[in-house]
Design brief:
By secondary structure, this protein is an alpha+beta fold. The protein has helices spanning 2-51, 279-285; strands at residues 57-62, 71-74, 78-81, 84-91, 96-101, 111-119, 130-137, 159-165, 178-185, 188-191, 195-196, 203-212, 215-221, 235-238, 248-253, 262-274, 290-293, 300-305, 313-319, 324-330, 336-340, 346-353, 358-365. It has 2 helices and 23 strands.
Length: 367
């Protein structure tokens, strides 16, 4: 009997061990599957949430092969020629710039703006530098300030850009020159920590990103493939999250700088893209009461104002490459604009520019 009981106990123990092993395997499988589901969720939905943090729409590209669409402001020390934008013995304390409409308002949640700039010659002793490499502004006012006629008061205009500035107005040592992010909320200016220029590098490749409403990133590269960061690059910089309405690109001198800040710089290959968010455009569109119809259309369309215009305006139509394809001036009192165009199918941005503000809407042409 004792042998039988012992055998039964062993059999019972065997079944218990088997049951425990099965339970452990089941738990392992369940945990693994949960982990797999979590991983799948993270990969799938993570890609959805991060997709809007990358470029999906080309906003503007320009190689300065033509002056078309660019407005020059200044005393002749800035120009577009030879396939580049040039500052030639351009001194601070005066307007010397070119600007171009982007054809839309940049997204407030992500954009990327790239260009290259070349320091063409060293400055003479006693002359520092001050230049706006690339400025993205909510309008066409100067990025920083008015000139002497406006007592160099800061312009009240939102902006984000890249600047190069010497620590003193007389420092001509390129190795001391700072490349940094400048941001403006209205007339309030802020700037990031700098990346130092390097005298042995002639051409710099700059990438400015707005990675969220309240954060920016500046990368400066030494190669045209935008892969080799120079020392100190990149830098990140927290900005006012309410900066919005950026619809214009500018290059030029620091108007608020002193007359001993001198720039001999060339800029080329503007490339700007964003995540396709229309938030900025919609908000901008709501500032005025106007409609485009029909939309989509076959190239013939009307712009209807709910009330007569209180100022003269210019209507500009841009394709998605940022190229100006149609322009028309309208006078104060206009209530309806009717246009018949031979434009090809595509998405266009209608930009209405008055004396002090720009409004934009998207329009689709299908044929």
């Amino acid at each position: 009997m004792s042998a039988i009981k012992k055998t039964k106990k062993l059999i019972f123990f065997y079944y218990i061990c088997t049951l425990i092993h099965s339970i452990i395997n089941l738990l392992k499988h369940t945990i693994t599957m949960k982990k797999l589901h979590v991983l799948t969720f993270s990969l799938f939905f993570g890609s959805l949430f991060t997709a809007k943090s990358q470029c999906s729409e080309v906003v503007f590209t320009n190689n300065f092969s033509s002056t078309a669409g660019w407005t020059n402001v200044g005393n002749g020390e800035s120009n577009i020629s030879g396939g580049t934008f040039n500052l030639v013995n351009a001194y601070g304390s005066a307007y010397n710039k070119d600007y171009h409409s982007l054809g839309k308002t940049l997204s407030d949640t992500y954009f990327k703006a790239e260009c290259q700039f070349t320091i063409n010659s060293a400055n003479p002793s006693g002359y520092g530098v001050g230049s706006l490499i690339m400025g993205l502004t909510a309008g066409t006012l100067d990025f920083f300030s008015y000139d002497a006629s406006g007592s160099y008061a800061a312009t009240a205009q939102d902006a984000i850009g890249v600047d190069i500035n010497s620590p003193s107005a007389s420092d001509n040592n390129i190795n001391d020159w700072d490349i940094f992010i400048a941001s403006k909320k209205g007339s309030t200016l802020a700037s990031s920590s700098p990346i130092l220029a390097i005298s042995t590098i002639g051409t710099y490749y700059v990438r400015l990103e707005r990675t969220s409403k309240g954060m920016t990133k500046l990368s400066v590269f030494s190669d045209s493939t935008f892969t080799t960061n120079i020392t100190g690059s990149p830098v990140t910089f927290a900005i006012d999250s309410t900066i919005t309405g950026l619809n214009t690109v500018q290059h030029g001198t620091n108007t608020w700088g002193t007359s001993t800040r001198l720039a001999n710089i060339s800029i080329d290959n503007d490339n700007i893209c964003d995540n396709g968010s229309t938030e900025g455009i919609e908000n901008l569109s709501q500032t005025g009461s106007w409609n485009v119809y029909p939309n989509p259309n076959n190239g013939s369309f009307s712009v209807d104002f709910k009330s007569p215009l209180n100022e003269d305006i210019t209507l500009n139509l841009y394709n998605m490459m940022g190229q100006l394809v149609l322009t028309q001036k309208e006078t104060k009192g206009t209530t309806l604009i009717t246009l018949n165009s031979s434009l090809s199918s595509g998405i266009y941005n209608i930009v209405l520019q008055g004396n002090s503000e720009i409004k934009a809407k998207k329009m689709v042409i299908t044929k």
